[in-house]
Every structure is written in structure tokens, then in C-alpha cells.
Amino acid sequence: MSPFLGVVRRFPSLCLILSAVMTAAVLIFPVLAPLEWISLVPAMAVLLMLSSVPAHTGKRTRLRRLYGYGFFFFFCYQAIVYHWFIYLYPLEFTGMSRAAAAVVVVLACFGLALLHGGIYAFAFPMIALVLRSPLCRRFRPLRLPLVAAVWCIFEWLQTQTWIGVPWGRLALGQVRWLPVIQTASLLGSYLISFLLLLVNLLLAQALLVPAVTRRRVMAALLVFGVNFAAGSILFLVDEMKAEQRETVVAAAVQGNISSSVKWSTEALAETFDVYVSLTREAASDGAELIVWPESTIPYIVPNYAWMVDYLEALSAENSAALLVGCFTKDTAGMRNSILTFTPDTGLESNVYSKRHLVPFGEYLPMAKLVEAICPPLAELQMMEGGDLVAGESASVAEVNGVKIGSLICFDSIYETLALDSVRDGAEILAVSTNDSWFSDSAALDQHNGQAVLRAVETRRSVVRAANTGVSSIITPRGTILGALEPLVDGQISAEVECNDELTLYARVGNLLIWLCMFGAGAALVSYLLPACQRKEKKSKSIDNQAAV
Length: 548
Known about the structure:
Blueprint: H1 3-10, H2 12-28, H3 36-39, H4 41-51, H5 63-81, H6 98-120, H7 123-132, H8 134-138, H9 143-157, H10 178-181, H11 184-187, H12 189-208, H13 213-242, E1 247-254, H14 259-262, H15 267-284, E2 289-291, H16 305-318, E3 321-330, E4 333-342, E5 346-353, H17 367-373, H18 375-378, E6 397-399, E7 402-408, H19 415-423, E8 428-433, H20 442-458, E9 461-466, E10 471-474, E11 480-484, E12 490-497, H21 504-508, H22 511-547
Parallel strand pairs: 1-2, 2-3, 7-8, 8-9
Antiparallel strand pairs: 1-12, 3-4, 4-5, 6-7, 9-10, 10-11
């Protein structure tokens, strides 16, 4: 028997929490990216062991026990990934009491981990069913790829409904290791997660079964090596294409005006002074496109003619287009929007409005239930006027012949929104965000890492302006040309590429997820069908005996 198998049998919970801590640490400290290729080995060993029929007992682990192990793993993982919610306290910008703020922060840290842990824990019993299916018993090489497929399906589920928040997906841990993430341009970041899982599974099986150790280790090295080599080639190919692309000088400005200040009427003059000064500085560096953060001006700007005139004059004075974060209002309600001002035409009619609003921040889901169960959560909304209204389209703007696709804050963590923008013609992605709630915590780099993934997936330059940081300019290959540190004011400008070609991922979308669903679905059907047939035969036998 493998010594490692003995450890896994005796200490399964320790193995699970070890994997949870190591994997979450990579997302917090991306410099640890290589660790993620082995960090899940203990958890995958537990999963493979519990999903099989142990020779020493001959009994299968019950699915509800597998669910319990899955819940333990995902709760620990999510709680560590979301530890930065503590930086929200005391939520001064909401006006709530410190006691209510403490309740909200605890719910954010642990409530979200409990909610997501309870949902994603179903991955463990589902994986067990897949591994126990006749399909996997007959075609054994499919076993580990189908386990990785189930994991990717649950990562995709994190993008669905208001409950889903795809903040902790595995690919985020690889954003500093550029050759590794380049294949995201082929099938998305899910491909990176799939390969990460597959390598960890191969190594876990190598440790559990000495007879296959050499073959599994070689297979793991091959999977990693092929992805690294393919990514390196894709990186170099796009570098060569960059020489033929048109460029524009773009800038991101970071005013460093905290959320506790920016919403007050008295802060408006300071806000204008700071951003006007930074805009002029960027223009003096040659910027033709200047991106301001989310809700830089926390007013319905089109309702104030003097604001519109001022911003139009600022754009004309500096011969630069401005993308300004503010609010707009129409018959549907108030929206979190980006207005475009150009030197020649002033305020453009094209308005981008945030498509994926933040629950409990910009709108209140299940309002009556939340108000009854946890009133402090109902107080968390930023807008006095009630829920914001989500935008319906990518609303790509055209500036001096260059098409700009905007994303606001939460939008940038959902890959399909970026895909919609590039399919509508966006040649550059502009991300405006306000991450000031998170001080200088790991959340800032994690959010910026999401922009790196969107850049690689779509092969688009990303200009990211954050109110208090991190503001950055990212190439289509994920290289960060420059970034502003958190909690400082300033501007960063650079020559960025304009690209109108669609990547394979932009063309096929989440095809990999559909393939994963097909494979996992086939395995589950092959498991359930014989069980249904046995049940039907048993029922007929009982009926026949009763007839006799």
C-alpha cells in the first residue's frame, strides 16, 4: 500500500484544509503561481480515494459524506479567498452603525463562504458518481478528464444568477505566469482551470497507486509542458502581430478620493480639481483617450448642463476623449454609467451602463426576505434612490475611429460581458471601477488580475481606472505596462494596441463548458440508467409475485 494512501485515509480533513489553504494563498499572492499546480493534490487524493471502492472494506463512501467533505473544503477555500471583506469595516460610507457594520462584514466573510460552500460542495458527490459510472469503468482514460470537467462546470456555475461570484476561480492564480495563461485565448480561462485540475489529479493518482506513479508523473509533466509551450508560442505570435496594429495613447487616472468622502456634496469641487489636474497631466503625456473611474462624479451628470459643458470643454481643451464614470437616469430608473466626451462632438449619445450590478450594494435581491431576516444587509445599498437598473447591451463607443468597449467594476469578472463587447467591435477594453471599499487589501490585485484574464481571452488592451487603485494598462498578452499603487493619486499613460481580430474563444465562447457538460452528463446517464433498469425489474418482480 502507498504510504501516501495511508495518510489520506487517516487524515482526510487535514488533506482538504491543506489544499484549501495552499490554493487560496496562490490567489492572494500570485507570485506563488507554480504552487497551484500541486496545491490541490491532497484534496484530489481524498476525492479519488472516497470515490472508489476501498479494498479493505469493500464499501463505497456515501454521497452525503462526500458532500460533507466537499462543503468543508469549499468553505475553507472561500473563507480565505474572501478574507478581505474585513477591510469594509466600519462601512462609514453607508451611514450604518458599527454594530450593524460588524454584522454585515461577518456575513460577507463567512455567509458568502457558507452559501458558496453549500452549493459547490455538490461537486464532490457528482464527481464520485462520474467516477463510479460504467462509462468511466469501461473507458478508464476518461476518468480524470471528467473529474476536471465537473470542476469546470461548477466554476461556470459561479457566473450564474446573483448568487454566483466567480472571484475564486483557479485561473486567477496564474495571471503573473504569462506563458501559462495564453491558451485562454483559445477556450477561455476555464481551459487553464481544467489543465490545473488535470495535473493535480494525475499527481494525486501517482501518489496513491505506486504501480502507475511513473506514467502519471510523466503525463502531468506533459500536460503542463504542452500548455506552457503552446502559451509561449501564442505569446510570441501575438507579439509579432502587435507590430502591425494601430496604436493610441491611453491613460487611466486615479484620484484616490475615498468612498467616505466622494458621496458628499462638499467633495464635488475637490473631485473636479483632482481629476481635471490629472487629466491635463495625462494629456501633456500625449494621451488621446483618458479613462476615469467608476462613479467619479456621483451625480446624474446629464441632468446638470454646467457639468456637461465643463466636461466637454475639458475634453476639447486637452484634445482627448474622456470616459467619465457617473450616473444616468431614464424611464427604467437610475443606472451606473460611463459617458463619452470627445474634443470634436462633446457628449456622445452612446452611453454604457453597468450590466452586472453588485447585489446588496446596487440592488437588493429578495428584498422582503432580507429585510425580515437581516435588516443590516438591507441598509448596505449605496443609492438613496433605491435599486439601480442594469444595462442591456455592450454599447461600444467610437472615439477617433477606435471602438472602445467599457466595463464597470463587477462587469470585468464575468467573461461573457467582455466577449459581448469585442463581438460588437470593441478594439480596446476600458474598465472603470471603484475598489476603495477594500483599502489596500488583496482584493485590489485580485480584481486587477481579472482584467488580465479578460485581456488575454479577447486579445484586447485593457485600460483600467480605479478610484483608489489598482489602476493599470494591460497589453493583449496580459503584460502590465504600468500600474498605480493603491491609495495614491496619479495617472498612468501608455501606447496601447487596437485590435479588431476575434480570438478563437471570442468566436466559440464557452464551448469547453458545453463539452464538459456533455462528457459529465454521459457518465451520469450511464450510472443512472442501470440503476433505473434494476429498479424497474425489481418492481416487475414484486408485481408478478403479488399476482401469483
